[in-house]
Amino acid sequence: MRKQTLFRSLQVATATSALALAAGMASAEDYTRFGIEEDVPGMCSYESIDAKDYSGRELTIITHAIPVIGEPTKLHAEQFAELTGAEVEVVHVPFGDLFQRIMIPFQTGQDAYDVLFYASLWVGDFNPYLATVPEEYQNASGMQGLTDTTRDVGMWGGEMKQYIMDGDRHYLKFREDIFSDPEMQARFEEETGRELTVPETWEEYNEVARVFTGWDWDGDGEANYGSAEVVKRDDLMFSAFISRAAPYAKHPEVEGGFFFDLETMEPLINNPGWVRGLELFVDAQEAFPPGGTNFGLGDEIFSFGGGETLMSYSWDDALIQAQQEDSPIRNDVNTAMLPGAREVWNRETGEWDTFEEPNRAAYITWGWTSAVSEASQNKDMAFDYLCFFANEANTKHDLQIGRFGVNPYRADHFDAEFWAGELGWDPDMAAQYVETLQSIDGYDNRVFDLRVPGVGQFMTSLAAGVAEAVAGQSTPQEALDGVAEEWTQIVERIGPDRVREAYANVVELEDAR
Amino acid sequence: MYRQKHLFLLPGLLVLVAIIIFPLLFTIRVSFSSWDVFQPGLDWIGGENYGRLLEDARYWGALGRLLVMAVGTVLIQYVLGFALALLVWGDLRARRFFRVLFLVPMMTTPVVMSVIWRTVFHESIGPLNGILQAVGLHGLPWLSEPTLAFISVMMVEIWQWTPFMFLLLLAGLVSLPREPYLAAKIDGAGPIRTFFAVTFPAMAGISIAAILIRLIEASKIMESVYVMTSGGPGTATETSSYYIYIRGLRDFQLGYASSLSVTYLVIMIISLTIIAKVLVRFFVKDRT
To answer: Could you say which of A234, A292, A454 has the minimum Cβ distance to residue B231?
Structure first.
């Protein structure tokens, strides 16, 4: 009896050891061959995806051209195919064609693509054709780590329609070495009668930019300039303008709409707050580098990132460019929230309100996002791909490559040690960068993109009006009056109720805090 | 037999219907619908889109700019192309080399060349301003000042398409009979008189064809505008093709963009017919 018991115990022990060994061997699988440092356990990890078998099935993905988002899409698609046996086709499309390449199959009922990568502000048009992210994926560890703001970007009508894989916002970038240089400080004080500080308002921004324009303040023998901005029409210029106008037009105590009055759907785009923003945008031209009024995003990135200009504001790219290992201004740059306004238009009272502390408006603009088509016959595989794309190991890898266009969006990305340790950033600068992102994420007075049906039409109209004012073809008031008139016509064509219903989702996010 | 003969036309007719007639008819049909980003499909809204375009100042402004740009560039291309063709037609050393050299711009991809020209015109790092500054002049805001931006786009168009004009006119020159030149020489005519009395009138047919072909092409100016200025500064370089592209493929107003395209097509057919008649009258009159 004892022998039998002992024998059985030995059998159990052996079996358990064998299982443990097998499990140990499985977890010890080396996935670093995929270029990651270490697999992070979870339902989307390399190990979990490796356990799936999609042999004989095809996954079709549409994404942006290489490198921005297109390159990581391709990289992770190849990895996914190798791990699961699936056949993955990636279709790369230039940005100008991306919207219509996705929209035409949607409208004609074709099942053309399973997975879509696109600009998150298009959700107002795409949402009827997108599958809701299943509960199990929303509970994945990576998804649980999203910040509130980035999670909000994925939501539509209370449902998660977009699978978050990027986090975008506008913030200020400036040359720390120049701002902290006593000689520069003295020169600025001499010219303006005030101390050189990081601009807290857009008036201060324009003033600092003007003083540091047209002379060689970095000693490289070339003239430098004050500000690089995205001003080229139809090249995301509308985002730059909204950044400038928001603190004047987004009153922290006035609810019910920033672009429109939600009740009446009357455009607010030509109210005095917006006009003030445009006047300052027009004035800023004198501090642009030569050709600065034709700068697209790429020009802005290289102008600031290359050390030509003192300040800039947009997404992370220009900062990442400045922080490249071979950059002459590496660790000479710093970040802050966008400048604000001391006078803010109160559309309820019809008066300007004065603020002791500048009013700021955190602008959560754009951001790449992803989704699965409702018409897809491969939703399980499609969500697994997105889950894999955005797993912790892949994201950590992608964040370190500037050209990939993946920017911080999870709470653990806001860790200064990651930026200082992995990328060699100056610790103080990394700490300030993380603080800037956290401040934006946690800020109460927020502005989101106009995520409604026909957003392209609204933004094209806005860009055309702003471009006319910048080119001197009309005054800021005339330009924005024209935009308001066109917006009214667009709302009429789409249907005020339809736009209101969509815009209510945006206003809900803005007024939530 | 008579019926069988017509059957041979069928393949050609089917191709014609598939690639020309059907897309044209479909575009006309779409132009009477409200197909938009929020209204997919072919409904019927009558002439609403056409009524809207009558009030669309941006469309008519773009059309006006296109007119200036197309006529201006084609005339300059004609003059330059003729001059280069005469140069190579004459007794020039290494003329085969120059013939190939002059054709290079036409053989390059318009989008790629526009990107290169955008760099050339770049006001900070572009070589053009560098050259101006090297000879003691100020750099110019090539792409950020409305008039200069318009001229810059025209310069690129002229650079790219003068070779086409050169090619056609050179072919015309080479095919001219020698006898009139011998007679002119016997009569003691100099080179200028020979050109105006013999060459220019003899080239009337090919000149009209070259100008019309280029006008048709120039009326679709798009790549250089898209790459160099995006229609800016303001709307200074926005042409009809670019505006229709914005409305159709950026804004996804397919119904409205179709009405813009159909209107544009009608205007172009009428304009080019008139221009052709004027050119014929001019050259024929010149001949007589």
So the answer is: A234
Instruction: Give me the residue from B142, B230, B253 closest to A235, CB to CB.
Output: B230
Cα nearest neighbour of A469 on chain B: B234
Per the CB < 8 Å rule, is A234 touching B235?
no
Q: What is the pLDDT of residue B17?
A: 84
Q: Which pLDDT band holds residue B8 (cuts at 50, 70, 90)?
A: confident
Full domain range(s) for residue B170: 32-103+158-287
Inter-chain residue contact B233 with A293, CB threshold 8 Å: yes
Nearest CA to B226 out of B141, B129, B118 is that of B118
Full domain range(s) for residue A102: 34-165+368-406
- Closest-CA distance, A491 to chain B, in angstroms, reads 11
- The complex's ipTM works out to 0.81
What is the spatial distance between Cα A217 and Cα A224, in angstroms, rounded to a whole number? 6
Mean pLDDT computed over A16-22: 45
The first and second tokens of residue A475, run together, are: 């005054």
Residues of A with Cβ-Cβ distance to B149 under 8 angstroms: 294
In a domain, B153, yes or no: no
Please indicate, yes or no, whether residues A160 and A249 belong to a single structural domain of this protein: no
For residues A81-90, average pLDDT: 97
Residue located via tokens 């950059």: A327
Into how many domains does chain A fold? Answer: 2
Per-residue confidence (pLDDT) for residue A3, from 0 to 100: 44
pTM, rounded to two decimals = 0.86
Percent of chain A with pLDDT over 90: 79
How far A233 CA sits from the closest chain B CA (Å)? 6
Q: Which residues of A touch B (CB under 8 A)?
A: 96-97, 99-100, 103, 106-108, 125, 232-235, 289-294, 296, 303, 308, 453-454, 456-457, 460, 464, 467-468, 470-473, 493-495, 498
Q: What is the mean pLDDT of residues A195-222?
A: 97
Q: How far is A123 from chain B (nearest CA, A)?
A: 12
Residue B183 maps to which CATH number?
Answer: 1.10.3720.10
Residue B53 lies in a domain: yes
Interhelix angle for A272-283 vs A237-249, to 10°? 130
Q: How confident is the model at residue A18 (pLDDT cuts 50, 70, 90)?
A: very low
Token pair listed for B179: 């006898």
Q: Which pLDDT band holds residue A292 (cuts at 50, 70, 90)?
A: very high
Q: Is there a single domain that holds both residue A158 and residue A175? A: no
Q: For residues A136 and A197, state if they share a domain.
A: no
Residue B287 is predicted with a pLDDT of 53
Answer whether B246 sits within 8 Å of A234, measured CB to CB: yes
Instruction: Select from A406, A456, A437 the least CA-distant residue to A96.
Output: A456
Give me the mean pLDDT over the B157-161 stretch.
95
Q: Which residues contact B4 (CB under 8 A, 6 or more apart)?
A: none
Are A226 and A327 found together in one domain? yes
Asked whether the CA dihedral A52, A85, A67, A94 is positive or negative, the reply is negative
Residues forming beta bridges with residue A335, ordered by sequence position: A173
Cα-Cα-Cα-Cα dihedral sign, residues A219, A224, A226, A232: negative
In this prediction, residues A346-353 reach a mean pLDDT of 96
Residues A109 and A73 in one domain: yes
